[in-house]
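Figure 2 data, in text form.
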Amino acid sequence: MPLIKNGAEIANEWTFVANGEALPETGKFSVSLGRFLALKQGQENGPLPDGVRLAPADKAEDLEPYLGELSLIEVDFPRYTDGRGYSHAQLLRRRYQYDGELRAVGHVLRDQIFYMHRSGFDAYETRRAGLSEVVEALNEYSVVYQPAADPSVPAFRRRS
């Protein structure tokens, strides 16, 4: 699956370790929120990951005390009709000031990428859109009217 960040296709150095699978001793890996919390609270033994994957039903606020320790937060989009990942991104970026990599994974479509970027995502792992489509989607609109987690200034706040 292509991983696109900063307008370029990059190698994915991260591995997602599903619940029940053995944790690697080395390398960059992410785990589910439930497993991450179990590791942090000593309910499970193993190396601590530098990344977490949020499912739609997870609560982003559960990560607040640990955000400074995380290099990657993946937000899973199991279906394109499930928009809870956008809320996770907004909370992490705007309320909790998370400044690490925020990656959209799963069912990521070209038509959603502009809005994902506005919500705070900065990396996209997609099966259905290539680099040119992602770059095109990110540049699709030149004027925005609503404030968001991205650095764009809404049109109503610009001075002429």
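Caption note: Residues 3-159 form a domain with the Rossmann fold fold (CATH 3.40.50).
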